[in-house]
Structures are given as C-alpha cells and as structure tokens.
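Discussion board: Methods & Data

I've been asked by a reviewer to show the raw model output for two of the constructs in my manuscript, not just the figures. I'm not sure how much to include, so I'm pasting the format here to get opinions. Each protein appears as its amino acid sequence followed by a line of discrete structure tokens. Is this the kind of thing reviewers expect to see in a supplement, or should I convert it first? Here is construct A:
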Amino acid sequence: MTNDQPVLVAGASGFVGRRLCQALEDAGHEVRAMTRRVERYAGPGTAVYGDVHDAGSLDEAMAGCGAAYYLVHSLDSPDFERLDAAAATAFGAAAGRAGLEQIIYLGGLGKELDQLSAHLRSRREVEGLLGTGGVPVTVLRAGIVVGAGGISWEMTRQLVAHLPAMVTPRWVNTRTQPIAVDDVVRYLVGVLGHPDAVGRVFEVGGTEVLRYSDMLRRVARIEGRPLTIVPVPLLTPGLSSRWLSLVTDVDTQTGRSLVDSMTNEVIVEDDSIRDVVPFEPLSYDDAVRLALAERREGA
C-alpha cells in the first residue's frame, strides 16, 4: 500500500482501537475510524460510519483504503460465535471488493492441538474468514492485554481491589503470557505494510510466563494490598462467571466467555514477530504500573 492511502480501523473506539488510531496518526498515516456512532466519536482520525453486522455499510467505509484493522468481537452476546463468523465473512468480502492489500487482525493465543474454548475457537475461525475475500491477513495472537479499560486486565485489577481473600477456581493455575497494550499497539503498527508480515500469523506476548494467581499476587504487591488465594477445584465455569460478575463490573456473559478460555494455556511458542518488529516488551510489573497510572489520570 502507498503512504497516501487511508487505513481503516474497525473497532476504533475500543480498548486497543483508540490507542492504535493515535499511534497510526503519530506514524504519519491517514486514519479512518470506523464506528456505529459517528456523532459520538471524538478520538484520532476521521470518523466514518460502518457496522460489521451490516454488510451494506462496509463498502463506503473501505473505499480508497489500502489496509484495514479488525478489532471487533461480540463476546457480550451468547451467540457470539455465529455473529463473529458472519461479521468476519462480510468484512473480508468487502475488503476484497475494495481492493485492500492487507487486513490486520488481533486474535487469541492457544495451542492448535488443545481443546480450545469457544472464545478461542471463534478467534481462529475469524482468522480464516477474514481472508475469504482474497485479501492477505496478518494475524497477531495475544493473551491477556494489560492496560486501563481492557476487560481481562480490569477483571484482574478489580478482584485485587475488592477481595483481600479469594476462593478461586482451578483456572488461577493456568499459565499465560500477558502483554502491555502499548506493546500490542507497537506490533500492530509495525506489521502494517511490512513485506515480511503480510499473510502471516504471529504470536505476541510480554517477557514473562505467569499463572493467573501470580498475576493477582503481583498486582496486590504493587498496590500494597493483602491477598490470600484459596483454589477450589469444583467451582464450575458457570459459578465462576457469576462470582466474577458479583465482585467486578464484567457482565456475566462476557465473564463466562473469558472464564471458559482461562482453562487454555496461552503462551508464545513462536517469537518470530520480534524479527519483523524488533523491540523489548515491557515486564508485567511495568505494564501493571502503567495501567494503574493511566486509570488514576483518567479518574
């Protein structure tokens, strides 16, 4: 793609999207921020109407663009797998009609041979469906993204803030590789138009592999809060998601989707992204400190 072609960001008002739009502008790109609420959008870029669940709205949003980012999901719906599959298919087809050269998608980590949760299976399905219109797709697979406003991070922060002691399900012993949101954005910008990134799948993560219990304890230590964790093997996913909705502001449906995924290890096994976009990611503790500082500044 040429530098004078706009870049479309689907999900521009979201947790990652609003940061990405700013980073793309800072890098000299013209940004089209796709949103269903143009009149409410006040972020970087030019707001354009588009809805991934309304295929007819996508052609105008993409017209003249060289590439598009796809950062949307329907986790708050019990029918998210069907909705996300239909949306990805429509988006990929529209990208093909518009002649885009690259779609960039932020997906989820997880071993291919594992019995993936419905959430992670859906993420994999979306990867394939986005390419059905013939446009090469660059995929970045991530685990927990640490930053103010991110669902998984807010769940972690709020559990530590509200509970000095926790009776927790087995998933607190699952390993993950959290990554700072600023590092995710840096990778997303870095693969745009990069000849070694087009059509490839990458895994992105921070510098440490941690259990969820480790993450909770590290946040508690940084905030100077007491925390005792008592795992309970028989706490079911359904009960676990209801427990989360009681002590955090994560809704029950989204919580259930996330809890189901927490039984899958999400760690980086291929770090080839660091050859394409070379830099040293933040440590978990530094990512937490930045997230907490951002929340304080925004309060």
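Construct B, same format:
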Amino acid sequence: MSIIQRLKNTVRSRSIHVCYVNVGSCNGCDIEIIACLSPRYDIEQYGIYVHNNPREADVLLITGAFSPQWEDKLKQLWEKIPHPKVAIAIGNCPISGCVFNRPETLVDPPVSKHIPIAAEIPGCPPRPTEIISTILSLAPLIFKDYEEKKK
C-alpha cells in the first residue's frame, strides 16, 4: 500500500459518518444516541458525525424491535450506504426483542437475520459512552486497507 493510500485510510478512520434508524422501539436508545451529541459526551470531538442521509454514512445504528414491515425498508436502506459500511445493533431490542418479543406478536429478532451486524451493544438502554466506544473500535476495521480492497 502506498503512502497516499495509508494517509487516506488514516484520515477516513478519524472521520466517521453515522446514520441511525429506529425500527420500532420505545425511544430509550434514541435518547441515548442524541445524548452523545450533547456537550457532556460531544461525539463530534472524536470525528463522529450524525447524518440522516444513508448515502453519506459509514455506520448504520439500529435501535428497536424488528418487525416484518421493516424487512424490505431496512434492506433498501442498507444497500444505499456506500462501501465500506458496518451496522451496529443498539440496545436489547434489535438483539433479542427484549420485552416486545412475546408469543403471537409481530416482533422478529434479531436484526442480524436481515442485515449483517458488526457489533451489538446490549442494555436497555446502553450508555452513551458504550455507543461511542463501540463506534470508535469499529473505525479501524471499516477503513483498514480500503483502497486495496476496492481494486
């Protein structure tokens, strides 16, 4: 790998763009994601930026108990994100369905059955520090040798 490619990968790993989607939760995890933007946690100091447009994202954050109505929509959203990309399941709901996973309900956990999940953050809801540390731990994996893989 050339010096320029190494430099590009280093810069990209310090500029992570995140998009999040709620597939049917109580909004507890969404509040913790928004708390990451507050001055107390200041997610942008780590080079993590939140977007609503999946075409600008590197990381997809998923919250909520997955239901069948989201199957096609989530796959379309996942396909819109350019490579390299990863998805993170935030909270117990996308991992196991949590309290919403009852007999004869329309909850279909886990989300990893529908799209590839790189990391799971358990908790109801997980702390903002856990969300930030997980995103930062995945950054080197997302952009490692990206220019070589692209060829």
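Answer (T.O., handling editor elsewhere):
This is acceptable in a supplement if you add a one-line summary per construct. For B, something like: DSSP finds six helices and five strands in the chain.
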